Amino acid sequence: MDEKTASFVIAGLKFDLPVIISITVAMALVFIICVWMAHRLTMKPTGKQNALEMLIEFTNGIVDGNLPNQTGRELKFFSFVLFAFVFVTNQLGLILHVNVGGVTFLKSATSDPLVAFTLALISIGLSHFLSVDKGGFKKYVKGVYFSPYAALMPINVIDQFTSFMTLGLRLFGNIFAGEIVMGLIWELAKSYGILTMVPGLILAVIWMAFSFFIGAIQAYVFVVLTNVYVGEKLE
Description:
By secondary structure, this protein is mainly alpha-helical. The protein has two domains: 1-41; 51-233. The protein is 77% helix and 7% strand. It has helices at 17-38, 47-66, 70-96, 113-135, 137-145, 153-191, 194-233, and strands spanning 4-5, 7-10, 13-16, 98-100, 103-106. The strands form two sheets. The chain has a three-stranded mixed beta sheet with strand order 1-5-4. A two-stranded antiparallel ribbon has the order 2-3. The longest helix is centred in the C-terminal third of the chain and has 40 residues, at 194-233. It is globular, with a radius of gyration of 21 Å.
């Protein structure tokens, strides 16, 4: 697929316009949806308020399963926002993929490796920061790099790097592959008119449902692993 993207340069730095637009749209959607769902809260939740509380309880459960302590309580809001943002971003390209004249302007931002790895860096960086903040630098170095034996330090360093790489690659790979396959299905649907349009549309609907599920799973896995990494470094 020869998909082009718009970009611009500021002070020698190249910025990918679709990524900026996609992240901005995802953040706006998360904010608007959460404000709408939390509007006019009542003691007996119904409808959208009930859905919001279920989502909060779901992400709180992820945190409690890995960090049943003060740090976990401090990370509950972060985990909720992280899950909501990654989930919406994963689905955005499926619902609102915008391509004008062969140039993409809106897609799933997590299908870009830089975005996926930036999110992974935030999660891994947070785990290291909290380890130093809660236990001190000396305990952090001993627990993360020299545990259980000092001789394992090189392996532990590699382990920290691979944790970052796998966290980013897992998210990027699944969302990128989903968009590529969806593009191929649309190309198939348009290839021979009505002969391929009907089966192509059926395939597109099936793949969209499957991709929606995968996007939700990836958001869940990302938040779970973020809390697991924090928990490991606070042991």
